[in-house]
Task: structure prediction
Amino acid sequence: MSRNPWLTQIRRLDPERDYEEIFRLHFSHEFPWDSVQALSFALFRTYAVPSIGELLDKTGEFGNRVQKRYDDTNLLMDQVVESGFTGSGRAAIRRINQMHGSYDISNEDFVYVLATFVVVPIRWLQKFGWRSLTENEIRSTVLYYREFGRHMGLKGVPEDYAGFAALLDEYERDHFAFSAGGKAVADSTLDLLSTFPPYRFLPKSVVHRFAYALMDEPLLDTFGYPTPSRLERLGAEGALKLRGRFVRFLPPRLRPFRARDQRGVRSYPNGYRIEELGTFPRGCPVAHTAPKQHEHSHESLHSPALEDSK
Result:
């Protein structure tokens, strides 16, 4: 295949030792567009968990600054891909931890979100990717996000892909439920999708129907979205599979993908500094009547994994 140079390199590397480099090649050269779409859907799924969706809604970020929220997430996560878990990448994780440290978020919710980052992109690529994933890529994705979780101070992170997949499916089965806040965040996200190329050239209703056609029944039911017709599902999935077949014959991507180069990232035309990305909340906007159920958020600000970068 035309992309053998990157694939050959991925197969030669040892995922137990070289997982950062394998993940970087996988994300930035082999599957950049698919990875971004899949991660967007991964985050979208988390809104169906009321403890997550309600909190995100009450921050006001999705109602007032959804574009900036999208951009900040993309830029911070991509900085870790680009730089690894040292230097600028570690600074990005610290910024993420600082934001999360202001909210009452359970360790279980954090680990679930981490599981979506592992499982949803792999499932997406297994269905729509231009080639099959290698075992090296799957294992490296697991190890990359396990390391990410370690830098966030998370506990009980699965050790392999099967563990992540089982955790995600079980958590969604037990926790998916309608909430007004989660629905508001989901609607705002779909509206933002309608402003990105090529979707902005289509009626918003068509973009929404396309998105519904890529969602599973539990997610649709939770948000109260209409069930797509069989023809709509075939059309949406067929379009993505056709794109994969087309990409298969393109030359290898020599210049690595960077989030800051995306046309959809529009909040910083004059550049940005990592430490200024994101939000700077003063306390959790959700009222709690019971004591905190975790100590993660505040511990993560002083995680030993981050101390040597200060």
